[in-house]
Amino acid sequence: MDTRASLSILLLLFGISQASPLMEQMFEGVFVSEPETIDITTRILDTNNGSSEVLIEGDLVFPKTRNALYCLNNNCFWKKNSNNVVEVPYIVSAEFSNSDKSVIANAMSAFHAKTCIRFVARSSQTDYISIENKDGCYSSLGRTGGKQVVSLNRRGCVYTGIAEHELNHALGFYHEHTRSDRDKYVQINWENLSADMSYNFEKQNTNNQNTPYDYGSIMHYGRTAFAIQPGLETITPIPDATVEIGQRQGLSNIDILRINKLYGC
């Protein structure tokens, strides 16, 4: 092999060795998907860290007007029309890409497929939800009246399961692990919570609609929610500690049952 050929091969190998890290970085940045091990709590709470909104239970907007947290009548819930359909008017911010909008539409279609809830594009309705790219993943609870924001930050919230989670809050549903009878089904490890975070686990006076506790609910937070240190469990299922909680794939069968019971579908 002559000198020029050897030099060419060496230069080619050098170029490949220098290009490989960049190619790998581009691959990671563009093609590698989010690990399935990241639960809904980690994704939501990490994204909400530093949010300017006052939030309770991690992603619920503190009541400013009427709210299903303190609802004395059905004004906190969306109304069913004469066709037995519950229409929830909405608008979507222009900040979202077509891909983002497709994810949001997919989340809405899960409700359309198995409940009488229909998210409809707003025309002139007074009460509606506004899906916006704000500083976190959060929603108010139930129908608050007027414009109410459902925030799906583009950097961490635009996933089908998270969109379903926040939309279900807007329909009036709490987190599963704060329902009134939760102590029969999960143990809260208070020692793994800082004092200023323990309020996020206060039980609520919920209407459980005679449905079983649902470890697989899209509304159930994961094992390490609000932990003092990463990896510490704050929520442990009982009596079987190995039961999976904190999924974000989509509405569970019991989530769907509860929506249909609450809204008389």
Mean pLDDT: 82
**Spans of 5+ residues with little confidence (pLDDT < 50)?**
1-36
Strand share of the residues? 5-15%
Radius of gyration: 23 Å
What is the distance, rounded to the nearest whole angstrom, between the alpha carbons of the first and last residues?
A: 80 Å
Protein name: Metalloendopeptidase
Enzyme class: hydrolase
Binding site for Zn(2+): 165, 169, 175
Domain Peptidase M12A: 67-265
Secondary-structure topology with pairs:
Layout: H1 3-30, H2 40-48, E1 55-56, E2 60-61, E3 86-92, H3 98-114, E4 117-121, E5 128-132, E6 137-139, E7 147-152, H4 160-171, E8 186-188, E9 235-237, H5 253-262
Helix pairs in contact: 3-4
GO molecular function: metalloendopeptidase activity; zinc ion binding
Domain Peptidase M12A: 67-265
Organism: Culter alburnus (Topmouth culter)
Overview of the structural elements:
This protein has helices at 3-30, 40-48, 98-114, 160-171, 253-262, and strands at residues 55-56, 60-61, 86-92, 117-121, 128-132, 137-139, 147-152, 186-188, 235-237. With 265 residues, it is of the alpha/beta class. The strands form 3 sheets. The chain has a 5-stranded mixed sheet. Strands 1-2 form a two-stranded antiparallel sheet. The chain is globular. Mean pLDDT is 82; it is low at 1-36. This is Metalloendopeptidase. It comes from Culter alburnus. Keywords: Disulfide bond, Hydrolase, Metal-binding, Metalloprotease, Protease, Signal, Zinc, Zymogen. Residues 1-19 form the signal peptide.
